[in-house]
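Let's practice the habit of predicting before peeking. Look at the sequence and jot down your guess about where helices and strands might fall. Then scroll down.
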Amino acid sequence: MSSETMNFSIPPSLQQFLTSLDSFIETQILPLQHKNDNIRFFDHRREHARTDWDAGGLPHADWEALLAQARDLADTAGFYRTALPVQYGGRADASGRGTNLWMAVIREHLAAKGLGLFNDLQNEHSVVGNFPDVVMVMNYGNERQKEELIGGRLRGEDPQHAHRPRHHLPQPLDPHTSLLGPLHHGLPIANTFTHENRLRQAASSLGAATYCVRSSILYSNTRRPFGTPLSHNQAIQFPLVELHTQIEMLRLLIRKTALEMDAMPHAEVVLRGGG
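Done guessing? Here is the structure:
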């Protein structure tokens, strides 16, 4: 019994992926981020730079073009479609299973780097794309819907998506052919999306928290009131230790949950998740 062990390390293949991803970011994404003053979209000017004030506050065309360029680079390098089923160029199996652990680790890893062209939590842009909607359409859409919605999504053929948030209709006007799955089954269908995304959002939040704690430690080591670093004070040390402990606890919970989800079909995930 003494020879039995529990392995809390991420798989070697995933670690190699992260190493390759970091190299891609350093060699292709960060140079683009700093080219032609593109850094304006990420520094203190970012909200103004990203917004087209003459077009009702919509995202500026230059900002969206930069995001598209980064996505194209990531797609060409083989990173962007990682979470997709294999038939769409990803690493998941044909049913869309098997990438929850990978995405949890990847999203935490990217968010822990802070804000950049490689990952932006504000608008869900990332060089490793998040596609829970594809999983939903795969499981409940017919063949025509799969081609139109998934194919169009990956080809970028939905430029008017969510472009009229102020409009309100008292009843739906969509044709019956737009119905996804059985009528009156909207909640379990939607939960196919939400159960995938809840875990990934938690992982991103964990990465953001990690970034904040690391930044706080760096600041407390360099800030020297009266000649002594702030980090020497217990009033600084204890809260940071507590936060670090909570981060580690949450990391283990997220990855354990992701691993269990990868072992279940979507229907079971929805059922056990309360859908």
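How did you do? The mean pLDDT is 89.
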